[in-house]
Amino acid sequence: MHFRSVLPVAQGAVRRLAAPRAGQWMTAGQMKIRFMSMMVSKGPLKVDERLANLVRDEIAPGTGVDADHFWSAFGKLVIENGPKNKALLDKRDTIQAKLDEYHKAGKTLETSEYKKFLVDIGYLVQEGAPFKVGTANVDPEIATIAGPQLVCPVDNPRFILNAANARWGSMMDALYGTDAVSEEGGAIKSKQYNPVRGQRVFEQTHGFLDEFFPLADGATYQDVTGFLVKDGKLVVLVENKEVALKDGAQFVGYTASPEPTSVLLLQNGMHFEIKVDRYSTVGKTHPAGVEDVVVESAMSAIADCEDSVAAVDAEDKANVYATWTGLMKGSLTAPMGGGKVRTMNPDKTWTKPDGGEISLPGRVVLLIRNVGLHVYTNAVTLQDGTEIPESMLDLAITSLAAMHDLNKNGGQQNSRTGSMYIVRPKMHGPEEVAFVNDLFGKVEDMLGLKRYTLKMGIMDEERRTSVNLYECMREAQNRVVFINTGFLDRTGDEIHTSMEAGPFLPKAEIKQQPWIQAYEDNNVDCGLQTELSGKGQIGKGMWAAPDNMKQMLKEKIGHPMSGANTAWVPSPTAATLHAMHYHRCNVQERQAELRGRPRNNVDGILQVPLLKRKLTPEEIHAELKNNAQSLLGYMVRWVQMGVGCSKVPDANDVQLMEDRATLRISSQHIANWLHHKIVSKEEVMKALKDMAAVVDRQNANDPSYKPMAPHCNGLEFQAACDIVFKGQDIPNGYTEGLLTDFRRAYKAKFPA
Asked: What is the number of alpha carbons within 13 Å of residue 46 lying toward its C-beta?
């Protein structure tokens, strides 16, 4: 992986620092590959031998595609489309230079004149006639069922198996093990079952059941003493009286031996399963023997090759592709200790009320996120050693691997409609979407897939995409299945785009400005007006505090209420709790209400959130400290440990989920304040050194951790300095290239 830079090395460009490390074993599921840092010729390409062997031995067999044919056809695709990829990146630089000139000249941000300028430079395009999304053959988990979505690094088999299996989750475990239930009054969390806390969990669970699956005659679940099935109907015993569901159609299945051991209920397309065992530790404390309530949780998950992954060389990429292949084959495993092995969950079956059988998937539907157009790789090069776009490699190999799933007839299928779902990040405007759409078609032809088998997710995270989202969707109107918003990357691009316009507000205040709501509403409006709803997902961003589930339960209802039919969560537990919001809000009905509102125009999105007041020294110090700690806390794990996404404590020791988007916004914010003299270089360096000591303390219990302080001269600290002090000049403020170079250097200096 390498990141293009418009800067010569003498001016501090991101540059390659080390070659890939050789001689290590990689395990993903049942696959083990000996790494040899050799390149082998494959048609017009040179391919790292470990990657060539993986394709030949593990990925291609069973797809119907010959490995040598794959590399030959892929080489042709790269040669034909590589120049266009570069031209689009050059266009980004040209547009940014014109934006910088405009702002340096002190020209107005008044909407009409500013918009005219943006049109003149090709930043803002004119919208064409109305159109409707025509995407077909989409799985219901993406098209019609509203529910939570996980994002998980695909380089960790254990983590991605957790995500794949997060379709069903224990409501009672989610409540018992988090702050969603208070520990007051003796209800403390403990490894051994605490009956006091268990009673609190039952009270909250009964409340959800009463709300979503109400009983007739005003009865409540806290008084239930048993469940029966009579004549195809659910009978609930309440104080020895037989009571029905208020809506009998919500009862869709059960298991019995001979009395019901589980009852399956349905609302808003998602299921609750009440499990009964009067002799279990929990069940014997409940009048009806309820031992758990298992709920349909995450409907889909994104297996991430991008922001949550630290894949810097062919060794890492082979691990990514091997894990994805295991998922698509259904064979991925991960050791769990004690001789246990994690596998992919089977489907679940129940008896229908009328006596037939109902079967539901035991796993989420997986999408995969490729890297962006700006990332290049040395895992595959042209014959002269020129690096190729890594996004093309991701697209081709992950699509080839997905053919294992596409070729299945029944069994553990990811897609039951014959589709593969690929999320594309960091595209800038309709021209880039059109280019990627064309690449999808060429890969389909290369692999012998039907047209539009490969579906596209559009990350609405770059400003030029946000203001042109309607036209971006037009360019992929027969493929698009996903559009979503995300505050962090979107704000990072907002800062870099208008770097020369002036200093930005503190981050917390940026989030309160009109542009962010305009951006969020525009995303939903574009999805509704093009009739994406019913064919794909309108998504919202991540809940970043995985240990604060009480607050999530209170606040994240705002995402389905906004008209989004999915939103990101940081864990399977969070997915189980966030699922309650989709029972509370019928998203399809909410979308019907929102369709009548006038579409938000781009004027609001174009309001730049600049600082227009004088900050106090305390405000400046607090913001700088927060940014420096966030940046270092993430950077040290990336460079030292190769971890692309994890819980990172903030300056107040609050655990937050962070990936490269966090790094982008923090580094760009410091670079902006530095450029406009809100802070000095000396103040920034002091903040970084002070926060290095804080980050060291926060990681003190990790035996593999190497402290940064007091010397602050290690590779991770150097990387943090570079990403700030050179942040203004790094194209689009992207952090991947610099991170990659320092991670490679670290692997070379400290081989495992």
From this structure: 12
Q: Beta strands of 546-634 (E only): which ranges? A: 566-569
Q: Where are the beta strands (DSSP E) in 510-634?
A: 537-540, 566-569
Mean pLDDT, rounded, of the chain:
93
- Both tokens of 221, joined, read 């679940």
| Beta pairing class for 149-153 and 655-658 | unpaired
Structure tokens at 326: 């295991």
Contact indicator for 740, 748 with CB cutoff of 8 Å: no
From the list 475, 518, 536, the residue with the least C-alpha distance to 606 is 518
The pLDDT value given to residue 600: 76
E strand or H helix that includes residue 116: helix 111-120
For the record, the structure tokens of 119 come out as 């049109």
Q: Which residue, chain included where needed, has tokens 């923090």?
A: 666
Q: What is the pLDDT of residue 649?
A: 78
Interatomic CA distance for residues 161 and 332, integer angstroms:
8
Q: Which two tokens stand for residue 421?
A: 């779902």
309 — alpha (psi -120 to 50), left (phi > 0) or beta?
beta
Higher per-residue pLDDT: 24 or 518: 518
How far is Cα of residue 613 from the mean position of the Cα atoms in its chain? 35
CB 443 within 8 A of CB 65: no
List the catalytic residues.
369, 659
In terms of Cα–Cα distance, which of 218, 12, 1, 3 is closest to 718?
Answer: 12
Distance separating alpha carbons of residues 309 and 317, to the nearest angstrom: 10
pLDDT digit string (tens) for 366-375? 999 999 999 9
Helix (H, G, I), strand (E, B) or coil at 574: helix
| Greatest mean pLDDT range, 15-24, 614-623, 649-658 | 614-623
Residue 199, H or E segment = helix 195-212
pTM reported for the whole predicted model: 0.94
**Joined tokens for residue 604:** 């609001």
Statement: residue 479 has pLDDT above 50: yes
Token pair for 466: 């946000």
Q: Return phi, psi of residue 337, to 5°.
A: 90, 155
Task: Give the model's confidence band at 32: pLDDT under 50 very low, under 70 low, under 90 confident, else very high.
Answer: very low
Which distant-in-sequence residues (6+ apart) come within 8 Å of 160 by Cβ?
A: 152, 153, 154, 303, 323, 327, 332
Considering only CA atoms, which of 176, 214, 170, 207 is closest in space to residue 194? 176
pLDDT reported for residue 37: 64
